[in-house]
């Protein structure tokens, strides 16, 4: 679940500017990801990006007006259990989009004019499809179609030291820094701690 709201002064961003920032966020779901299409489709379905224009935007230095670069306040809402893990990649993707925007317009953005705030939603307060849910519930829903297909067989050939995350289907390289879990004498690799937590809960093993 990624709910990203980008607030800017009214009239400051063009349709092209909004497309640039949207592409930066969605790049997390599209670039260099080895997950199967079933998982990616559900990941895209729970990613929502919206823009809000605010009139009379004023800083401590006075009211904003062009051609100064517009201040931006970007709020990303994710499950609390994912917040720390997602902070760096999500903030990095958004910053990259803002840098592209600034370069395109020739803006030199002053300090304090870009805020990226990650807000965590507690388990039980996540409204997945309108019902109270947890971060693990969301992971299970996003990966449900892949796991249904995977349980029916159809193994793929993998390079040495690479395994399939049994929750989402992403390819994971084992080794230093890998997120793993020992289960039934097997080392299982995961793309993220969220997948490991959901798997451990589902199979009743310590995470």
Give a structural overview:
The strands form 5 sheets. Strands 2-1-5-6 form a 4-stranded mixed β-sheet. Strands 3-4 form a two-stranded antiparallel ribbon. The protein has 5 helices and 12 strands. Helix 1 crosses helix 3, helix 2 packs antiparallel against helix 4 and helix 4 (135-150) crosses helix 5 (193-203). The protein has 207 residues and is α+β, with helices and mostly antiparallel strands. The protein is elongated and about 65 Å long. The model has no long low-confidence stretch (mean pLDDT 90). The protein folds into 2 domains: 2-121, Macrophage Migration Inhibitory Factor (2-Layer Sandwich), CATH 3.30.429; 127-203, no CATH class.
Short description:
The chain is an alpha+beta fold. The strands form 5 sheets. It has a 4-stranded mixed beta sheet. The protein has a two-stranded antiparallel sheet with strand order 3-4.
State the main characteristics.
four-stranded mixed beta sheet, 2 domains, 207 residues, 5 helices, two-stranded antiparallel ribbon, Macrophage Migration Inhibitory Factor, alpha+beta, 38% helix, elongated
Count of beta strands: 12
Q: Helical proportion?
A: 25-40%
Summed up, the helix count is 5
Q: Report strand %.
A: 25-35%
Number of domains: 2
CATH superfamily of the largest domain: Macrophage Migration Inhibitory Factor
The CATH architecture classification of the largest domain is 2-Layer Sandwich
Structural class by secondary-structure content: alpha+beta
**CATH first level of the largest domain: which class?**
Alpha Beta
End-to-end Cα distance, whole Å, is: 22 Å
Mean pLDDT: 90
- Major beta sheet, strand line-up: 2-1-5-6
Largest sheet: 4 strands, mixed
In N-to-C order, the SSE pattern is EHHEEEEHEEEHEEEEH
What do we call the CATH topology of the largest domain? Macrophage Migration Inhibitory Factor
């Amino acid at each position: 679940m990624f709910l990203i709201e980008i607030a800017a002064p009214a009239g400051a961003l063009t349709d092209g500017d909004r497309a640039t920032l949207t592409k930066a966020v969605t790049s997390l779901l599209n670039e260099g990801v080895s997950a199967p299409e079933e998982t990616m489709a559900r990941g895209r379905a729970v990613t929502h990006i919206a823009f809000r224009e605010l009139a009379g935007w004023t800083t401590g230095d006075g009211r904003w007006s062009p051609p100064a670069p517009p201040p931006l306040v970007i709020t990303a809402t994710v499950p609390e259990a994912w917040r720390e893990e997602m902070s760096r990649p999500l903030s990095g993707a958004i910053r990259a989009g803002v840098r592209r925007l600034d370069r395109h317009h020739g803006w030199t953005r002053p300090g304090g004019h870009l805020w990226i705030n990650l807000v965590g939603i507690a388990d039980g307060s996540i409204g997945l499809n309108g019902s109270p849910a947890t971060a693990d519930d969301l992971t299970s829903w996003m990966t449900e179609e892949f796991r249904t297909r995977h349980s029916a067989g159809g193994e793929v050939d993998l390079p040495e030291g690479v395994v399939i995350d049994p929750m989402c289907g992403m390819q994971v390289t084992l080794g230093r820094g890998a997120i793993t879990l020992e289960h039934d004498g097997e080392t299982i690799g995961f793309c993220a701690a969220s997948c490991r937590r959901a798997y451990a809960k589902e199979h009743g093993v310590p995470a």
